[in-house]
Amino acid sequence: MSLSEAAAPQREPDAVPRMARARPFGLFLVLTGAVAWVASGILVLERIALYKDPDYVTSCDFNPWVSCGTVMKSTQAALLGFPNPFLGIVGFGIVITIGMALLAGARFARWYWVGVQVGVTLAMVFIVWLWSQALYEINALCPYCMVVWAMMIPMFLYTTARNIAHGVLPAPSALRRVAGEWTWVAVIVLLLITAATVVLRFPGAFVGA
């Protein structure tokens, strides 16, 4: 192999779905990670304002059902002893960095992608728990939190599909094909289900009481 061949970027197989390829997937991580990072940053600033002034009204306090302040003051909002959005600042910052590295042509070992999968899976589990707590325990919605939910769902599904397509997660060929072709459907279905649960749980916030 010549020096020029060794230095050339490796070409991904045509069988790999477009969204599982380095550049498209990297751009996807940057965009979804950036939106979630900004939402987390706003939540951090709002939480700091509440620390300074307990009577502060957050920018997303609209009614009894849609109130970031109510959510922030709950015990669930600081599961590890500090505000949850700090986890988002760090976690989504890492996601953006991975995406930028992929856009720059970086390639990562299988063990690295296993770590990424573990990370997004734990994040997804945490988001599902926060969703359940907001709807059935805190009884209030946080719009910025819902933005993070909306980004985390496709981030988890497409990362899983990417890792299945590249063999990071062992799967039969049929599942690899389904993951490559139908991930977008799963994303839409989960987003619609999430939106439906919110509307059904708090109909007064959307259609009036």
Show the helix and strand layout.
Layout: H1 3-7, H2 22-52, H3 68-72, H4 85-103, H5 110-138, H6 143-165, H7 173-201, H8 204-207
Helix pairs in contact: 2-4, 2-6, 5-6, 6-7
Q: For the record, what is the CATH homologous superfamily label? A: VKOR domain
Major pleated sheet? none
- Principal-axis shape: globular
Strand content: under 5%
Q: So, CATH architecture? A: Up-down Bundle
* Helix/strand order, N-terminal first: HHHHHHHH
* CATH structural class: Mainly Alpha
How far the N terminus sits from the C terminus, by CA atoms, comes to 72 Å
The stretches of 5 or more residues where confidence is low (pLDDT under 50) are: 1-11
Count the domains.
Answer: 1
* Helix content percent band: 55-70%
The number of strands is: 0
Query: Which fold name fills CATH's third level, the topology?
Result: de novo design (two linked rop proteins)
Counting helices, strands and paired strands, the structural category is mainly alpha
Description of the molecule:
- With 209 residues, the protein is mainly α.
- It has one domain: VKOR domain (de novo design (two linked rop proteins)), CATH 1.20.1440.130.
- Helices cover 69% and strands 0% of the residues.
- The protein is built from eight helices and no strands.
- It has helices at 3-7, 22-52, 68-72, 85-103, 110-138, 143-165, 173-201, 204-207.
- α2 packs antiparallel against α4 (85-103), α5 packs antiparallel against α6 (143-165) and α6 runs antiparallel to α7.
- The radius of gyration is 20 Å and the shape is globular.
- Keywords: Disulfide bond, Membrane, Oxidoreductase, Quinone, Redox-active center, Transmembrane, Transmembrane helix.
- It is found in: Membrane.
- It comes from Paeniglutamicibacter sulfureus.
- This is Membrane protein.
- It is a multi-pass membrane protein.
